[in-house]
Design a protein that fits this description.
- By secondary structure, the protein is an alpha/beta fold.
- The protein is about 45% helix and about 20% strand.
- It has 15 helices and 13 strands.
- A seven-stranded parallel β-sheet has the order 3-2-1-4-5-6-7, with helices on both faces. It has a six-stranded parallel β-sheet with strand order 10-9-8-11-12-13, sandwiched between helices.
- The two termini are about 10 Å apart.
């Protein structure tokens, strides 16, 4: 019997986020006959939204610090990597990438992998952060990125060899059972409540839609530093009774079961997990078409021009929601796209193939 490849997947937290959702989707398809998995979060505790979902993967799950702002993982993470006898350390999100890859290099882990899903531009624009990001990336044997934007910045601004950088799209499996009881005029958005997600435009859109039809209602699922500011904006626009704020949810089954439309207003992402999840649930989506990856979805989504104002968006959304035939065509096209391009099984096989190729090149079997 061949020895299993021992892999540590390291992520910042088990809180709600696209990186966590993507990782869990991939790990469900890991070949457990060939790979032994350990999943660790730098910080997490019993209250972490995604901890039950992490444990459901059936691998060893570790929380290296119970506190968000007290980094006990500065002690526990080195101990884990030094003693874990890992063949591969695969790091996800910012802090994990900045710490895990360097520690893996120090302790002689054979294969070090970076998974970059972060569009926050400060790490490229602010020189000290760019230097540290580049230093940690130079420790990696392979870097998976979810967009050409990230790939180009890593290669051009951090001077990382292009052969180490792989564009790996996010992926979502179709739910085994889809129960949809949508409220005809409930419109949703979800994600981290941060500036570049542009939830302020969603709230302005909501205000215009409410004028077109007073029966529209809205839901914003998620939490983040701008929560109070966005709620104040909604109140100022007279939407306090029209918008639901459920906070961070452990899964979005109930969210997708109820909404009639998902709206994506973010600036920098290509196709984030929330859109792929909507497609998998056959929920129609309206997305701001500010990059080539989104702009090609002429059949699969309602494309909102980034230069248009929120009133123009509202008229387009209102028209779509009054056309059941158009919605059905859109959802069917999105379903086909998911089957052809966004399979987590296919993406996980690609990840594991890279592990094995790098191990083979280093003479490790």
């Amino acid at each position: 019997m061949e020895r299993k490849i021992r892999v540590l997947h390291l992520i910042d937290s088990f809180d709600l986020g696209g990186g966590q959702t993507a990782l869990f989707q991939f790990l469900e398809w890991s070949d457990r006959n060939k790979h032994e998995l350990v999943l660790a979060a730098l910080h997490g505790n019993a209250r972490s939204v995604f901890l039950p979902r992490a444990k459901a993967l059936g691998c060893l799950v570790l929380c290296l610090s119970p506190f968000r702002w007290l980094p006990i993982y500065c002690l526990t993470l080195p101990g884990l990597i030094a003693s874990g006898r890992f063949d591969v350390v695969h790091c996800h999100l910012f802090v994990s990438n900045w710490t895990g890859k360097i520690l893996a290099k120090v302790f002689g882990v054979p294969v070090i992998v970076s998974h970059d899903q972060s569009f926050d531009r400060f790490r490229f624009d602010w020189a000290p952060v760019r230097w540290w990001d580049g230093l940690s990336n130079r420790c990696a044997d392979a870097i998976f990125v979810i967009s050409t934007f990230i790939r180009d910045n890593i290669i051009q601004r951090e001077k990382i060899p292009s052969e180490r950088v792989y564009v790996l799209k996010n992926a979502v499996a179709r739910p085994s059972k889809i129960v949809r009881r949508p409220r005809p005029k409930l419109i949703g958005a979800a994600g981290r409540l941060v500036g570049w997600k542009n939830f302020s435009r969603f709230i302005k859109l909501a205000a215009h839609l409410s004028k077109l039809d007073p029966d529209y209602r809205f839901i914003i699922a998620g939490d983040g530093p701008l929560a109070a500011e966005l709620k104040m904006q909604a109140e100022q626009l007279g939407l306090a009774e029209r918008i639901l704020w459920p906070g961070a949810l452990p899964n979005l089954d109930s969210f997708f079961a109820e909404i009639a439309l998902l709206v994506l207003t973010s600036d920098w992402e290509d196709l984030p997990m929330i859109v792929l999840e909507a497609f998998s649930y056959r929920v129609p989506a309206a997305i701001v078409s500010n990059n080539s990856e989104r702009s090609r979805l002429t059949k699969e989504a309602l494309l909102l021009a980034p230069e248009a104002d929120e009133l123009q968006w509202a008229k387009a959304v209102h028209s779509l929601l009054n056309s059941s035939d158009r919605i059905e065509q859109m959802c069917s096209a999105a379903e086909r796209l998911m089957e052809e391009e966004f399979s987590p099984q296919r993406q996980m096989r690609r990840i594991e193939t890279v592990y094995e190729e790098v191990l083979r090149k280093k003479g490790i079997s």
